Amino acid sequence: MNIILLGAPGAGKGTQAVKLAEKYRLLHISTGDIFRANIKGGTPIGKLAASYIDAGKLVPDDVTCEIVKDRLGKEDVKGGYMLDGFPRNLYQAEQLDGFAAIDVCLNIDVDPALLMDRICGRRVCSCGASYHVSTLNGKTTCARCGKELYVRKDDNPETVGARIETYEKQTAPLIDYYKKQGKLVAVDGGKGSPDEIFAEICKQLDKIL
Ligand code: AP5
Ligand code: MG
Question: Is the CB of 119 under 6 A from ligand 1?
């Protein structure tokens, strides 16, 4: 099964992807994580991506599509994957249709009023896990792997505002795009704990698997 995870910044795409990857044995491919790894490694892609990410804008389509096409050409995706954060506009969605067979687009819908607090309180781990500071009880290390947690550079109020605007203008129209293809599965990601939302997602996915 090949799934797209769609949702605003802070909707819970990464949180749910970790759980879904384990339950359905899917590969988690996050374009945001790929860009951050490139920034950390000081690669040319990382140098280009950093200025866009810091401004809350989309990294240019040609670079992003090439990365995803290349990644989906590898052998390890054959058992199924989840695309977290791709596609993010109509052009990317059309490109993806040309090189991948997507089964489901899972839209995690969250009231925009919740997003700022969720993101600005986020603490992440390099293993991919993500937490909210209010649930950590003062802990600064990852419950999954023990590494030190940190704050993402783009998780500040100014950049988050720009990211939400970019989402509304460019990414939200994809909900209709996948609805028309009959591939949309929607869940309310704003009410309930991550585990409760995960249970709802599984209920919906199990109906169509
Ligand atoms: P990316 O890394 O994809 O960031 P994003 O889309 O802004 O989404 P986030 O990772 O911030 O949120 P999330 O939905 O994963 O939420 P999470 O689970 O962590 O992209 C970053 C940048 O890279 C982009 O801005 C762009 O510049 C560039 N980029 C990436 N892809 C691109 C593309 N295709 N084209 C061009 N550019 C691209 O949860 C958030 C917080 O909420 C956490 O603290 C979590 O603990 C908490 N939380 C989760 N669920 C719940 C719940 N149920 N209740 C309460 N709190 C919860
Ligand atoms: Mg994420």
Answer: yes
**pLDDT tens digit sequence for 119-132:** 999 999 988 888 99
**Identified catalytic residue from 36, 118, 122, 123:** 122
CATH architecture of 2-111+174-206: 3-Layer(aba) Sandwich (3.40)
**pTM (predicted TM-score):** 0.96
Q: Is 7 in the pocket of ligand 1 (CB under 6 A)?
A: yes
Question: Tens of pLDDT along 160-188?
Answer: 999 999 999 999 999 999 999 999 999 99
Q: Centre a 10 Å sphere on the Cβ of residue 92 and count the other Cβ atoms it contains.
A: 21
d(CA 68, CA 92): 10
Domain locations in the chain?
2-111+174-206
